[in-house]
Amino acid sequence: MRGAFNRAIVNDFDPGRTTHRRDKTFFVYDKDEHPALLGEDRGANPVEYLLVGLAGRVTTTLVYLAAARGITLTRSMPRSTVTSTSKVCSACPSRSGRATRPSGCG
Could you tell me which of 1, 26, 30, 45 has the fewest CB atoms within 10 Å of its CB? Predict the structure, then answer.
């Protein structure tokens, strides 16, 4: 066995009582784990897909609610990027209970 790589193909969906087939498009989700977890890193892991899916759902809902209320949204770039790291920053006191970091801390 070579890791836990697996693939899901989505080509239809069932809202309510009707099946809608996608004739021209479909989606392929390759899933795997990092080598530290005995995977081969050939795709995002299931938790990463879950988090991206939840973030997409929140974003989509926000956009539709804004449109329904006549609010115009503009595109902006994120101010910061959150990455997973095992580094410990000695300049970031944990006493405050907040996840704030000084500029340039990483």
Answer: 1
| Separation of alpha carbons 69 and 63, rounded Å | 10
8 CB contacts (<8 Å, ≥6 apart)? 28, 29, 31
Provide the whole-model pTM.
Answer: 0.57
Cβ-based neighbours of 87, under 8 Å, separated by 6 or more: 106
pLDDT at 57: 94
Distance CA 37, CA 55 (A): 25
Residue ranges of the chain whose pLDDT lies below 50: 85-106
Task: Give start and end residues of each alpha helix (H) in 12-101.
Answer: 46-68
From the number of C-beta atoms within 10 Å of its C-beta (0-12, 13-18, 19+), residue 3 rates as middle
Give the pair of three-digit tokens for residue 94: 């944990």
CA 12 to chain centre: 22
Domains and CATH numbers, the chain: 6-68 (3.30.300.20)
